[in-house]
Amino acid sequence: MRKAPGSNLTRRRYDRIAPFYDLLEALVERLRFASWRARLWSRIVGNRALEVGVGTGKNIPYYPRDVRITAVDISPRMLERAQKRASVLGLEVELLEMDVQHLAFPNHVFDTIVSTFVFCSVPNPVLGLQELRRVCKPSGKLLLLEHIRPSNRLLGFLFDMLNPLVVRVVGANINRRTMENIRRAGWRIRVEDRLSSDIVRWIEAEP
Question: Which residues are paired to 192 by β-bridges?
Answer without folding.
Answer: 203
